[in-house]
From TrEMBL:
Protein name per its UniProtKB record: Transcriptional regulator, TetR family
Source superkingdom: Bacteria
Gene Ontology molecular function, alphabetical: DNA-binding transcription factor activity; transcription cis-regulatory region binding
The UniProt record lists the keyword 4Fe-4S: no
Keywords annotated in UniProt: DNA-binding, Transcription, Transcription regulation
Entry annotated with the keyword DNA-binding: yes
Organism: Actinoalloteichus hoggarensis
Amino acid sequence: MSEQSSRMPAASGADAPVTLRGDARRNRERILDAAGELFAARGLDVPTAAIARRAGVGVATLYRRFPTKESLVVAVFAGQFAACVAVVDTALDDPDPWRGFRTVIEYVCLTQARDRGFGAALAAALRDTIDVERERGEAIRGFAELTRRAQASGRLRADFTPADLTLVLMANGGIVADSAEIREAASRRLVAYLIEGFRADRGEPAAPLPPAAPLRLRDVVR
């Protein structure tokens, strides 16, 4: 047996597992990137076959990494769910509870407007149809505490309830626009209107609204 052939099995045995692990990691990253792009543009109803094509992998490979659509959605938006919890935590540390309350609503609505997939994933999480139990529980408890503090400060109307956040997200999620930029501008203006309606201290002048978005009445029927 030559020196070269005697070394080959050892080299193959040592390198093969590393290569497989690297391929699996790269496949997972490609799938997550492709799913994130498609979810953002088209929502969560994108077929898994389309995600696999965008990622350049087979459908079987996708299902090996993510056995269910739910597991893929949770993985794609894990960072954004964690960021929402972090924003709530930061708002709770704000000495001005009204500012903290506003910050959370503005952040969640802007994130929803920027990414259709996240908006749908957030709605699914709130309906308990995808499993992000820890993040959902922390965010809901934190927002309820923010609501209590803002009402105690006299800045938030007493009849606002944490469940009204659902109305805000439903309204914000209904914005239809030709581009993400217009959708974001419309969301900022809508949220400013809503927050003004939530104020209890009518003695203070209203804050100026963000610029109007170039929306048309015919956009309503799209």
